[in-house]
Amino acid sequence: MTDEGAGGPEDTERDPRWDLVRAAARRHVATPPGLVGRVLRSLTVVRQGPPLQLPCDDGVLTVSEAALVRLARTVATDQAEDVDGVTVSAVALADGELQILATIRFGVVADEAARVLQHCLTAELTRLLRARPPRVNVHVVDVRPG
What we know:
The strands form two sheets. Strands 3-4-5 form a three-stranded mixed β-sheet, sandwiched between helices. Strands 1-2 form a two-stranded antiparallel sheet. It starts with 17 loop residues before the first helix and ends with a strand. A hairpin with a 2-residue loop joins strand 1 and strand 2. It has four helices and five strands; from the N terminus they run H-H-E-E-H-E-E-H-E. The chain is α+β, with helices and mostly antiparallel strands. It is 38% helix and 25% strand. It is elongated and about 55 Å long. Helix 3 packs across helix 4. The longest helix is centred in the last third of the chain and has 20 residues.
């Protein structure tokens, strides 16, 4: 890569702020028990569990878990395109809550990006379903170079 001074983009991995990312990567942060397994299972297996009951103005909306996860994955991917530097890696329903695993671009403020995606996804699912969706949790699980 070229320097910014040479007219090209700066090599982001030489940016001294990457030292903070590398330091964070060396530090162990516990993943909630079973989260990764539940997310991976949701990507490969369509579960035949009981349908979900979502409260709405007219009573209750009944929707299968598989349909809700597919809809949430589609909407989350679309919504992430509007949140600078965020991509969605996986979506699952675990313990009655939607779990969104996201990757952010280096330099993006992780908690703010997660909060924006959570808000946008919840609002769009509410609009599409005309019912209150399960709680949405966004987990930033990776950082990619800018």
